[in-house]
Amino acid sequence: MSEQAINYVDVPHQLKSGDSVFPRVVLNDGSLQTLDECAAWIEQNKAALEAELKESGAILFRGFPLNSAETFDEFSNAFGYPNFTYKESLSNAVRINFTERVFTANEAPKHVEIFLHHEMAQTPISPSKVFFFCKTAADEGGATPICRSDLLFAELKAQQPALAQDFINKGLKYTTHMPSENDVNSGQGRSWKSTLSVESQAEAEAKLKELGYSWKWTEDGGLRATTPVLPAVVKLENGKEVFYNQLIAAFMGWKGVRENPSSAITFGDGSAIPVEGLQLATDLAKDYTFDLPWQDGDVALVDNYMSMHGRRSYSGERKREVLVALAMD
Predict the structure, then answer these.
(1) What is the DSSP-derived secondary structure letter of residue 3?
(2) Among residues 162, 311, 169, 172, which one has the least CA distance to residue 249?
(3) Which InterPro entries has this protein been placed in (predicted)?
(4) Quick check: 153 and 242 in contact, CB under 8 A?
(5) Which among 55, 94, 163, 294 could disulfide-bond with 20, CB atoms 3.0 to 4.6 Å apart, if both were Cys?
(6) pTM value?
(7) How far, in Å, are 57, 74, 139, 214 from residue 133 at the CA level?
(8) For residue 1, is pLDDT > 50?
């Protein structure tokens, strides 16, 4: 096929920062009608799309011929990134796989909001890119908010330089509770057997030791695990500092954390993170957040270092189905 350019379009409420637009939106004008044509187009334009992704942090692809988990699998796989399966991750959200690569974004009930976070930043192993696919949009609500973490951290650093330096120097530790069985009513309900890909407590302890965790078994058969020191801020190759963590999601959405943040998150040295600092980061994030207004068939490619994401609550009879594929490069 002859080479086809990237058709960028504007949508309401995009964020502008210097020369970058967040998110970038690519519209198929109808000339790409098959997955083979899409794959060839991606190959032709991959370098330009990746350069744009590094500057913007997210690209929304609209009007492409996708209508199922399988077609999304093919489209996302055409970028050629190494696969990062959910099974091998340490995420504690309950998900359902459609293909080896593709799974549901989250099985939490529709009224539950998933707050801003970097995918799996609360674990020692996290993906570098996240693909989202809207199979069916909700009747009302259900947007995926995305937030530019570099802009957020720059403002946090300007307002609270000492706190920002503590985040850089000390890093973080996360403590999570993994139940004995999957709890689909929780945004964090994946069992320790599923999370760690083990069958016994002995296997779980061996895996946790290998990864540098500390842990304690609870009376109900659950597992309380604390990570090794993980970064709160990551410096990218282009010099940008990004607020790479799960602090907002933990502070706003994890059970009991608003009342006592240290129950789940501390600085890497075990000291408490000031509540006003967590609240400031949460408030500042609103200025750098864009709600992806899903349409059926949309795909969003999100740089997991540059951009946080979440899920707004939704309502209506139509089931919201947003699927995910992860990549590591």
Answers:
(1) -
(2) 311
(3) AlphaKG_dependent_hydroxylases, TauD-like_sf, TauD/TfdA-like
(4) yes
(5) 55
(6) 0.92
(7) 17, 12, 17, 36
(8) no
- Which tokens is 292 given? 């992806």
Residue carrying the six token digits 């379009």: 9
Residue 327, classed as helix, strand or coil, is: strand
pLDDT, mean over the chain = 92
What's the rounded Cα separation, in Å, for the pair 137 and 72?
15
Note whether 26 and 58 are same-domain residues. Answer: yes
Which H helix or E strand runs over 279? Answer: helix 275-285
Give the CATH number of the domain where residue 186 resides: 3.60.130.10
pLDDT tens digits, 266-290? 999 999 999 999 999 999 999 999 9
CB-CB contact of 195 with 227 (8 Å): no
Residues 155 and 250 in one domain: yes
| Domain assignment of residue 302, yes or no | yes
Decide the pairing of beta strands 15-17 and 8-9. unpaired
pLDDT at 296 over 50: yes
The verdict on 199 and 254 lying in the same domain is: yes
Cα–Cα distance, 100 to 233 (Å, whole number): 31
Determine the structural domain holding residue 169 and report its residue range.
150-285
